[in-house]
Amino acid sequence: MRLTRGLWASLVCTAVFLTGCQLNPQLFAAAEPLPTLVSTLEILPNPPTPALTTTPVLATMTSTAVPPTLLPTETPTPTITLTPSYHLALDATQPQGYLSQFRLVAFYGSPTGPGLGILGELPREQMHQRLLDTIADYEPFSDRPILPTYHLVTTVANPHPPFYFHRVDLDLIERWVEEAKVLETAVILDVQPGRGDIMAEFERLEHLLYEPHVHFAIDPEFVMNSWQVPLVNVGQLHAAEINAIQARMNAIGAEIGLNRVLILHQFSPGMLPDKWLIEDYPHVEILIDGDGVGAADAKIGNYTRYASEPAFEYGGFKLFPTDGDYPVLTPTEVMSLEPQPVLIIYQ
After folding, report:
1. Domain coordinates in residue numbering, the chain
2. What 8-state DSSP symbol labels residue 258?
3. Chunked in runs of 10, what are the mean pLDDT values of the chain (347 residues)?
4. According to CATH, what is the number of the domain 151-341?
């Protein structure tokens, strides 16, 4: 259910001097096998987690912009081979929820190579193993199976006219989606449309959303108006555009019998300026991802505030282990947030 309309507080995004942070070695503990998923899941008891101080703050957050890698580099095909051990019982007459069944832990980046996040910085097989190792640290705190997830930036904003974005080759995206299915891995297709047409970018990927393991994300930071420039200005995404995409995703969810997930990144109020106008579609699950690089208290404060605002159905939390989070929250601390995030992203 949706929460009532919230009043917006003015928040000025100013640059924060970043301090380098290294990924907690515990994040790369021994890997556990991929979860076995069935259509009806036994919910495990949720063990008590240490209390986390979440004193509300108005500390500033920095942009998540990272200069994109413009020259694509092909990523090797993984040699990991797994036979899918689960089958969702999809019924178009009664679509089932997705985030009520699963939690996602994702590595973020571009399939073309390094520059945007962890996902493109390692050979795919090595990256996937690290992702499984990271999931192992979250499993003691999760009341549901955790799916490894590739968060693929498929439309990459850049500061170059006329459109201020470039596209990742569709054939490459489709190969990642197909190989992720074999590895029992979810996929989030993320767009940074610059001054391009958001609906056109959605339509380029729409056929992939019929795959049960594929979801869609929009980064309002990189939704530019006619005078804004990516990496210079922070953009904004309005409810009318969100609702138009929701309507298309809702039809897909009803057709395949499984709700679709729409992720919206946010680190300042201006990025989603009219949340109260975002409509509630029955087969679309909206997730507000607490984005932004900076101090832990500021990130926690933002996440807590978003959870009290309209349009919040599920929460996500993004971590920047090498780009400026200080300190980098541990899995114990992340899972102590209220409400618990159902999507944790490492960029």
Report:
1. 151-341
2. B
3. 35 29 32 31 33 37 50 38 53 89 96 85 92 96 95 96 95 96 96 96 98 97 95 96 98 96 96 97 97 92 96 97 88 96 97
4. 3.20.20
